[in-house]
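Tokens as discussed.
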């Protein structure tokens, strides 16, 4: 599975907003500088997140962006879906819409299982969890598994 630059930047921007303690909107430039994200690219990402109902934007001198809901109610999956669409697809097709024949028939349940596991992790972790460095125990258990950090 690949996490696109767009999804990575979106999650990092959302975490920057989640870490903002006051209700003052953050300017896109400030988010871009804090997370080392190209400003113009970030503007498009923030617009997608706004259309997805994750952030609110405010115009004017005191304008900027803030989360539309509490950070604890926005999952990492929500952010990725807002900017990249479905979490798991094969050639741009969602697994339930695929069909295989012959020896490849078993691929469909494999892709469904992969999607299920990705959903379980990304839907089970909120922006608040990551921003506060309190990842769920099951995520920590996966990172502690032998070989988790190794590249085969």
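Sequence:
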């Amino acid at each position: 599975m690949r996490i696109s630059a767009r999804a990575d930047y979106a999650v990092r921007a959302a975490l920057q907003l989640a870490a903002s303690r006051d209700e003052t909107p953050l300017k896109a430039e400030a988010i871009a500088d804090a997370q080392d994200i190209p400003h113009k690219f970030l503007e498009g990402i923030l617009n997608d997140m706004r259309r997805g109902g994750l952030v609110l934007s405010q115009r004017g001198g005191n304008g900027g962006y803030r989360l539309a809901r509490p950070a604890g109610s926005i999952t990492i999956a929500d952010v990725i879906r807002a900017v990249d669409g479905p979490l798991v697809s094969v050639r741009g097709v969602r697994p339930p819409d695929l069909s295989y024949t012959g020896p490849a028939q078993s691929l469909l349940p494999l892709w469904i299982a992969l999607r299920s596991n990705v959903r379980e992790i990304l839907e089970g972790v909120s922006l608040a969890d990551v921003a506060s460095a309190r990842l769920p125990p099951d995520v920590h258990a996966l990172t502690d598994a032998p070989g988790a950090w190794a590249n085969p």
